[in-house]
Design a protein that fits this description.
The protein has two domains: 1-214, Jelly Rolls (Sandwich), CATH 2.60.120; 215-349, Sandwich (Jelly Rolls). Helix content is 7%, strand content 41%. It has three helices and 26 strands. The protein has helices spanning 10-22, 33-38, 65-70, and strands spanning 28-30, 44-46, 51-53, 59-61, 63-64, 74-79, 84-89, 94-95, 100-103, 115-122, 127-138, 152-155, 167-176, 184-191, 199-208, 219-223, 227-231, 246-252, 258-265, 278-280, 284-287, 290-294, 305-308, 311-313, 318-324, 341-348. It is globular. The model is unreliable at 1-10, 13-74 and 77-84 (pLDDT under 50). Bound molecules: 2-acetamido-2-deoxy-beta-D-glucopyranose. 2-acetamido-2-deoxy-beta-D-glucopyranose binds at residues 11-12, 49, 51, 61, 98, 127, 205-208, 211.
């Protein structure tokens, strides 16, 4: 469903007002010769902070070049007829830009030098969420209890994930931020001395407090599409062990003219966490070998959970709670699938 038209563009509106008041600041560029080619009546060119494509094929948000530089980004390609640019930061970098790529040293090459790498996103007081579009975060894997002992990524705001490590590809997450407490988030990567080849690339977008596309608070993933793949951190890791210290919901909006939902596990068996941790699903799980018995977690390797029913009526938004506080259990080898990674599809009415 497209809801672009209904979205109040408050942030962008505020930017334009700021531009009119401050003149030189924000996204206005005094027209130079190029502009005169097609805009003889105007002395100022304005453009929205719309998505654009950088020279490396990344999509970014369009910024006036001087605005981007003032905000601390380095330029990444051009957009808006050559007037705008997208940004990215490396270790120690800070960016205010909506749409900033945070990248590991030498990306897309890997590195394996012990270091602490802090990358900071700053925002205005009307921003309540950061959306992280993860191209890849490839850090040393957790141990079998889901503890990030070698490498660890932490966020200075939001408590959904106390630690992140392992391998995660092509998915998104939301951080809730409180601009009254702090108008920045530090992404701190503590990289250990091991030889694991690390790299990461995350696009960070800023979502305004009154924006319709804001995810409900507490939703670590929020899907507004009829199909998609739900994925917890480290679902693409070699050991796929789920992480310790998670507490969030995966949320799915009910789309227009969709009345059923089907979940499909990507592996043979349904993932359920070790007992002591919680995956609360809006469906029931049964033990395939003993179908009269419901299961909510696994401590016995003999249990093969199946989802019942596989397709159900979609009466409203779906929420799947994932709470892992148990660092004492061995998470590895529980069932055949040791992380949350599943597809969904909303069906017609
Ligand atoms: C950032 O860009 C997104 C996508 O274009 C937009 O929805 C959002 O309002 C922008 N945020 C700010 C703070 O301008």
């Amino acid at each position: 469903m497209k809801n672009d038209k209904a979205q109040p563009k408050v942030c962008i509106g505020a930017l334009v007002v700021a531009a009119l008041v401050a003149g030189a600041h924000a996204d206005t560029v005094t027209a130079v010769n190029q502009a005169e080619r097609f805009l003889s009546l105007f002395s100022v060119v304005r453009f929205k902070n719309t998505a654009c494509t950088g020279s490396s094929g990344d999509s970014g948000t369009c910024y006036a070049k001087h605005s981007c530089l003032l905000n601390g980004g380095s330029l990444e390609g051009t957009c808006a007829g050559g007037f705008g640019s997208c940004s990215k930061i490396g270790c120690g970098g800070t960016s205010r830009n909506n749409c900033t790529y945070i990248q590991s040293p030498g990306y897309p090459n890997t590195f394996s030098t012990a270091m602490t790498c802090t990358q900071t996103i700053m925002f205005n007081s009307d921003v309540c969420q950061l959306r992280l579009d993860v191209t890849e975060v490839d850090l040393a894997p957790p141990d079998n209890r889901g503890m990030c002992l070698e490498d660890v990524l932490t966020f200075s705001q939001d408590t959904k994930w106390s630690q992140v490590c392992g391998t995660t590809l092509n998915t998104h997450y939301y951080l809730d931020v409180d601009p009254d407490a702090s108008t920045k988030v530090d992404f701190t990567f503590n990289i250990g001395a091991g030889s694991y080849p690390r790299k990461w690339k995350i696009k960070v977008s800023q979502i305004c407090c009154d924006q319709l596309s804001m995810a409900p608070m507490g939703c670590g993933q929020y899907f507004t599409s009829t199909t998609g793949t739900i994925k917890a951190w480290n679902a693409d890791g070699s050991n796929r062990v789920y992480l310790h210290g998670q507490n969030y919901a995966t949320c799915l909006r009910k789309e227009l003219d969709r009345c059923t939902i089907t979940y499909t596990e990507t592996m043979d068996d349904w993932f359920l966490p070790r007992c002591g941790d919680t995956l609360e699903f809006p469906f029931s799980f049964l033990d395939a070998l003993n179908p009269a018995v419901g299961v909510t977690c696994i401590d016995n390797a003999g249990i093969r959970p199946v989802l019942q029913p596989a397709t159900a009526t979609l009466q409203g938004p779906q929420q799947i709670y994932f709470v892992t506080g148990d660092g004492g259990n061995d998470h590895f080898g529980v069932g055949q699938n040791s992380n949350l990674d599943l597809e969904f599809s909303q069906g017609a009415c």
